[in-house]
Amino acid sequence: MGAVYSKNWGGLSWASGCSDPTTAADRVTCFSDSASFLTVLAPGALITAAGIQEAGTSQATPHVAGAVAVMKSAYPNYAGAKVISSLRTGPQILDPKSRVSTPRLDLTRFLPRPAFPNDFNGDGNTDLLWQYTDGRAAMWLMNGTAVLSSAEFGPYPGWNVLSGEGDFNGDGKRDLVWMNSNGAVSIWLMNGTMMLSKATFGPYAGWTLASASSDFNGDGKSDLLWKNTNGAVAIWLMDGTTVLSTAMYGRTRAGRF
C-alpha cells in the first residue's frame, strides 16, 4: 500500500525525517512504500476523518478497504485475484524516488455506471434516436428540448437500428444494435455520435436476437439473448464486442422463456 497527496498542500516535512518541497494531487508522498510488487496507491495525505487530520499509509489503507467493500457489494462473486486486478485499473503514478509506477485507486474504473435509456453521451439526459423508412438512423444528443448535436447513419441495405438497447462496455453510454433482415446482429460501441468500434454476429440458422438490454452476470455490461425457432434460447455474456461465454437452454415451448 502506497500513499499519494490528495491535493497541493504546499511544502511538507514529516516526523519520519523526509520532506516534500512541493505537493500535488497524485504525487507520491516521500513516506510512501514503493516497490515493483506494490499493489496500489491511494490518498494518504492529508486526510481528515472525525475532525482529525492525519497522514500516512494508514490513511491510504481505509480508502482501499472501503473500495473493496463497495466492489463486493456491486460484484458479490468477485474473488481475490479479480478484486486485486480491479483495484489496479486506475491511472499509473510514477514515484520519482524509486522510478516505479503503481496504479492509483479509482473506483470509477471498475464500478458500473448507470446508463439512462438512450443516453448516448453519458450526461444523464435521454437522447433521441430516429429511424427513417429508407433504413437511415439519426441520433440527436439532447439537453432538455435543445438539440446539442446530431448525426445520421446509413442507409445500410437490409439493416435497421434498434433503440439504444444496451451498454456493452460499461462506460455509461448507450450503444447501438443493428439487426439485418437475414438475422445478423451488429453492435456499435458509441461515444456520443461517434462509433468507437463494431462487430457483427451471424446470421445463425433459426436464431434471432430476442434482447440486447439484459445483464446476466451483473458486471454492468449488456449481454445478448437469442431465441431459436424451435423454442430454445441462448445467452451470450459480453464484454464490449467480445463474447466471454455462451449457454443454450431448451428446447422450451415455442415463444416461452
In short:
This protein is mainly beta.
What is this structure's SSE topology?
Layout: E1 2-5, E2 12-13, E3 19-20, E4 41-45, E5 47-49, E6 52-54, H1 57-74, H2 80-87, E7 92-95, E8 100-103, E9 128-131, E10 137-143, E11 146-153, E12 159-161, E13 176-180, E14 185-191, E15 194-201, E16 207-214, E17 223-228, E18 233-239, E19 242-249
Parallel strand pairs: 1-4
Antiparallel strand pairs: 2-3, 5-6, 7-8, 9-10, 10-11, 12-13, 13-14, 14-15, 16-17, 17-18, 18-19
How would you characterize this protein structure?
With 257 residues, the protein is mainly β. It has two helices and 19 strands. The chain has helices at residues 57-74, 80-87, and strands at residues 2-5, 12-13, 19-20, 41-45, 47-49, 52-54, 92-95, 100-103, 128-131, 137-143, 146-153, 159-161, 176-180, 185-191, 194-201, 207-214, 223-228, 233-239, 242-249. The strands form seven sheets. The chain has a four-stranded antiparallel β-sheet with strand order 12-13-14-15, with no helix packed on it. The protein has a four-stranded antiparallel β-sheet with strand order 16-17-18-19, with no helix packed on it. A three-stranded antiparallel β-sheet has the order 9-10-11, with no helix packed on it. The termini are far apart.
